[in-house]
Design goal:
With about 190 residues, the chain is an alpha+beta fold. The protein has helices at about 15-20, 25-40, 65-95; strands at about 115-125, 125-130, 135-150, 165-170, 175-185.
Length: about 190
């Protein structure tokens, strides 16, 4: 049996054209669209016929359980956000915020920091002579603002030659390395004192 040719569909009128049309013309247009849709469906062979429209699947349990679950979930999310905001606020209030330098940088300390890791070779007052593993020796000057620690704050005079240190320093305007912090670290295995 020969298949009927689909009839050309006229283009839909624009929104402006529809606004100016009368209700009867709109009903005729809708009826024509339905007739064309039905004609198109009638031309499909039965093996390719579309399925009957399915009933709406309702996945929510009776009594609006899905809505209740959604409310509970949103409440938990909001509670978590409030909790995290409270932690951040408490951290800032109790002083756990960003570190504030104890002394403002002076104009003489404008160079980028230099990290020195090595063994203390000698100490002369507040000057440490430190040898890096590569063999270079640095002269490191400590000031009253220099922080010294060995797990906890200690005085500079407690550092002994032979100990390994990690120092954060800056080059002063006169070229001297001035220590901002000095930390005594455990010696690497096999390193003698």
């Amino acid at each position: 049996m020969p298949q009927p040719r689909p009839q050309p569909v006229e283009p839909e009128p624009t929104a402006a054209a529809r606004l100016g049309s009368d209700p009867a013309a709109e009903e005729r247009r809708l009826a024509e669209e339905q007739r064309l849709d039905q004609t198109a469906l009638d031309t499909i062979p039965s093996s390719e016929a579309p399925l009957e429209p399915m009933a709406r699947l309702d996945i929510a349990p009776p009594g609006g359980g899905l809505r209740r679950r959604t409310r509970v979930l949103l409440t938990l999310i909001a509670g978590g956000a409030i909790f995290l905001a409270g932690l951040q606020f408490e951290r800032l209030v109790r002083g756990g915020g960003p570190p504030v330098p104890s002394t403002p940088p002076t104009p003489s300390m404008v160079a980028p920091p230099t990290i020195i890791r090595g063994q203390v070779v000698a100490i002369d007052g507040s000057t440490l002579y430190v040898r890096e593993p590569g063999g270079r020796t640095f002269t490191l000057h400590a000031t009253r603002q220099s922080r010294v620690a060995r797990g906890q704050p200690v005085q500079l005079r407690l550092i002994r030659p032979g100990e390994m240190i990690l120092a954060d320093s800056r080059a002063a305007a006169n070229g001297r390395l001035v220590a901002r912090s000095i930390t005594v670290v455990p010696s690497p295995r096999g390193a003698g004192r």
